[in-house]
Amino acid sequence: MQLKGLESTYRVLFDVFNYFCPNTNNMNVSLLTGGAGFIGAHVCNELIDKGHKVVVLDDLSGGFEENVNPQALFVKGSITDHALLEKLFNEHKFDYVYHLAAYAAEGLSHFIKRFNYTNNLIGSVNLINESVKHKVKCFVLLLPSPYMVADNCRCVKRCFQLLKTLMEFRNLLLRWI
């Protein structure tokens, strides 16, 4: 029964994914954060199947390097490392950013608020800033559901509200440009 729920969740995820990542004959370059995790590895395979050159950035805190498709370039690092992000964006000129690198620890999130804040919010803001600066075509935020509902933690909810506000503000700015 749990498996059926997961299957429908992944079906919805890939419907959304296909909307944001159409098949193309152009060689798009995509940054995939959290690409060494279970879902990230599947997203990586889909991107490669669609003809994208994929750079996977993962700190391996919740995934394994062997999960990464060998056709992708794997970079071990964190989304909190601003200098690394800047280097990757300058070097690869990303068209798309798929952000899956949020820390999800249902049951632990309220004990590690500072870590979650730094990794999930500050790291996400770093990615958004570099994406805006380098004019990526599309920034797709795919965060794990345990994190989104983690123990009704007020801090987590505030982080997501702030991140949502930042994304809305970014979209508003892009319309004016």
Q: Helix and strand layout, with pairings?
A:
Layout: H1 2-20, E1 29-33, H2 38-49, E2 53-58, E3 73-76, H3 82-92, E4 96-99, H4 113-133, E5 138-141, H5 145-148, H6 154-176
Helix pairs in contact: 3-4, 4-6
User: What order do the SSEs take from the amino end to the carboxyl end, as H and E?
Assistant: HEHEEHEHEHH
Mean pLDDT across residues: 75
Overall structural domain count: 1
Widest sheet: strand order? 3-2-1-4-5
Helix content: 40-55%
- Within CATH, the superfamily carries the name NAD(P)-binding Rossmann-like Domain
CATH topology: Rossmann fold
How far the N terminus sits from the C terminus, by CA atoms, comes to 48 Å
Number of strands: 5
- Helix/strand-derived category reads alpha/beta
What is the second-level CATH architecture? 3-Layer(aba) Sandwich
Report the biggest beta sheet as strand number plus sense, adding barrel if it closes: 5 strands, parallel
Question: Could you characterize what this model shows?
Answer:
It contains six helices and five strands. Mean pLDDT is 75; it is low at 1-6 and 145-157. The chain has one domain (2-176): NAD(P)-binding Rossmann-like Domain (Rossmann fold), CATH 3.40.50.720. The protein has a five-stranded parallel beta sheet, with helices on both faces. Helix 3 packs parallel to helix 4 and helix 4 runs parallel beside helix 6 (154-176). By secondary structure, the protein is an alpha/beta fold.
